[in-house]
Structure formats: structure tokens, C-alpha cells
Design goal:
The chain has one domain: sav2460 like domains (Lipoxygenase-1), CATH 2.60.60.30. The chain is 7% helix and 45% strand. It contains two helices and twelve strands, in the order E-E-H-E-E-E-E-E-E-E-E-E-E-H. The strands form two sheets. A six-stranded mixed sheet has the order 1-10-9-3-7-6, with no helix packed on it. It has a six-stranded antiparallel sheet with strand order 2-12-11-8-4-5.
Length: 181
């Protein structure tokens, strides 16, 4: 298994030798963490909301991306078939966010890893002490480049939580509708 550092980029074919893989996000600590995957276009925008996977939308239209719970608590897995993604999806950003006033600094540890046929091939790990006021993180990205898919260990935090992530990718977050009087 390859241990990655923040900012490191690798070829999926070199590490996984296939376009079908799983991306696992694991978090340990006293926080409830919501994971999601943003399927972005060439401009880095969420131009098709059907490619935003989260707890309430777990599958892309053609099934090239599927979100499932992991084998243990605090773990989520995305099954990804890169060859089945439509051409307009150029980047998959895997994120984690927490609600409320807590921050990722309270996280014991987290990681994003690549799996092929039950074997972990690469991992980027991070810890809460790497953050201060952040409430969300882009842990890693899969992206197309020159006919290849690559993985980047990103580790970039966002102070505004999930809302800031969605807006940074060009999405719009609706404010909750107040109950009728």
C-alpha cells in the first residue's frame, strides 16, 4: 500500500490497474461526519446535481458512482466505475463535513483510501490537529488528465462547512423553508 502526503498525485492505472475501484473515507473521533462526492465538469463546477452523492442521493444516474456505508462505524465507501462516467464529469471531489459549531480540530483521525478487489492500494491520512476552524474538508480528488485518471491527496479545509463546499463548486444551497404560522 502507498502512503500519500498532502498534495501528492498518482495515476490510477499505476496504483489500481483498473478503472473500477472503491474510495473509502474513514473518520474517528467524537464527531458525526457526513461524506459526499461532487462530480464536477471541466470548469470545476457542479453543473449536473445528479452527480452530487450524499446520504440522501446515493447513486449517479447510470450507476457509475454509488455511496454505501463501510464495514465499520465512521466509514463510507464510494464504488466508482471511471470508464462509465459521462465525458462531462471531469473530476470527483470526495469531502467530509460536520454540522453545528464543532470543528474538524476535534477529529482524532481521518483518511481517504483507494481499494481494488478488497485490497487497499493507497491512503492519505490526516488528523484533527492539522485544522483550526474548518468544518469541512476536500480529502481527495479523482480527475481526468490526458486520457488518464489521477488521484490527488488534497486535504483542503473549509471554515463554512458543507454549504461553503457546495457554493465553492457552483452549487446553490436553499435555506430551510420556515414552517407556516
Amino acid at each position: 500500500m502507498l502512503d500519500l502526503q498532502r498534495g501528492q498525485k498518482i495515476s490510477i492505472q499505476t496504483v489500481c490497474r483498473t478503472w473500477t475501484l472503491e474510495v473509502e473515507l474513514r473518520h474517528q473521533g467524537p464527531l458525526a461526519v457526513d461524506v459526499s462526492c461532487f462530480g464536477l465538469d471541466g470548469a470545476g463546477r457542479l453543473s449536473d446535481e445528479r452527480y452530487f452523492l450524499f446520504y440522501n442521493q446515493r447513486r449517479s444516474p447510470e450507476g457509475a458512482m454509488v455511496l454505501s456505508e463501510g464495514a465499520s462505524g465512521g466509514t463510507a465507501r464510494f464504488q466508482v466505475d471511471l470508464a462509465a462516467l459521462p465525458d462531462h464529469i471531469q473530476r470527483l471531489c470526495f469531502t467530509a463535513a460536520i454540522d453545528g459549531g464543532r470543528t474538524l480540530r476535534e477529529l482524532d483521525q481521518g483518511s481517504i483510501s483507494l481499494w481494488v478487489r478488497g485490497e487497499e492500494t493507497a491512503r492519505y491520512a490526516y488528523a484533527g490537529n492539522e485544522f483550526s476552524g474548518e468544518r469541512a474538508i476536500v480529502a481527495g480528488e479523482l480527475y481526468r488528465k490526458n486520457g488518464d485518471w489521477k488521484f490527488s491527496a488534497v486535504g483542503r479545509g473549509f471554515n463554512g462547512g458543507l454549504r461553503a463546499l457546495v457554493e465553492s463548486f457552483g452549487g446553490v444551497v436553499s435555506d430551510p423553508v420556515p414552517p407556516p404560522p
